[in-house]
């Protein structure tokens, strides 16, 4: 195995700023083969990534975490993406139903600490359950989303999943995204047209008022202290230099290097 740190990805990230999202998806397929999956919450940018995967015929599966308290519109969007884009969509679920969790732990999403625990059990743990299946995960984070995402890298290491996170839309602007959606037959979650700028669980997502930040509708009842669920590690503050362990030949392929000797 070989260590792959965020620092080692710096040069590649610089080069990748010039690549199109489609080129980045082809690179992901070429490097990781059947050990890469996309992850989508069935929001607009995720639909764009899914459409690109379908158009490029890369045969990359899509992971969807169903917390058990998703909006019906989100589940319908997932089914349409599976059927209309011809993608393999794998739904991941938490161990406990929301009813069982509430009986055991109370209503977690009504406090800041409880929200973190609830998001971990219902979003992060179902994803961690498939960590052995993948070396890379394709997401749809964009810098235009603001907050901690305003400097999200195209490639990031995810120590908890021991995988590379790939964000092919990182430098795609709102205007470019809107142009792609208007030019292509994109399956868009209808909640976006109903005032929801971002979409998560039905317990913790509301529409946003004109002029509010995009994520103002997430955990609104908890005030400004809760803004992210933790399923995307680059959303969280981390002043350490994260690293993951991958086979040496895979690290070589990612970095485009050859190892001539082993120590
Ligand atoms: S968004 Fe709310 S309901 Fe969904 S997992 Fe997080 S705290 Fe729980």
Account of the 3D structure:
- It is a single chain.
- This protein starts with a strand and ends in an 8-residue tail after the last helix.
- Helix 3 links the parallel strand 2 and strand 3 (62-65).
- The protein is globular and about 55 Å long.
- The longest helix is centred in the middle third of the chain and has 17 residues, at 112-128.
- It has a six-stranded mixed sheet with strand order 4-3-2-5-7-6. It has a two-stranded antiparallel sheet with strand order 1-8.
- Helix 2 packs across helix 3.
- It has a single domain, classed as HUPs (Rossmann fold).
- With 263 residues, the protein is an alpha/beta fold.
- The model has no long low-confidence stretch (mean pLDDT 93).
- Helix content is 34%, strand content 12%.
- Iron/sulfur cluster is lined by residues 67, 69, 109, 115, 118-119, 122-123, 200-201, 203-204, 229.
- The site of iron/sulfur cluster has 13 residues, from helix 6.
How would you describe this structure in keywords?
263 residues; alpha/beta; 12% strand; binds iron/sulfur cluster
What's the rounded overall pLDDT mean? 93
- End-to-end distance: 12 Å
Can you identify the CATH class? Alpha Beta
CATH architecture: 3-Layer(aba) Sandwich
User: What structural class should be given to the helix and strand makeup?
Assistant: alpha/beta
Give the count of helical stretches: 8
Largest sheet: 6 strands, mixed
Number of domains: 1
Low-confidence stretches: none
What is the 3D form? globular
Q: Superfamily at the CATH H level?
A: HUPs
Which sequence of strands runs across the widest sheet?
4-3-2-5-7-6
Task: Give helix % range.
Answer: 25-40%
What's the order of the H and E elements? EHHEHEHEHHEEEHEH
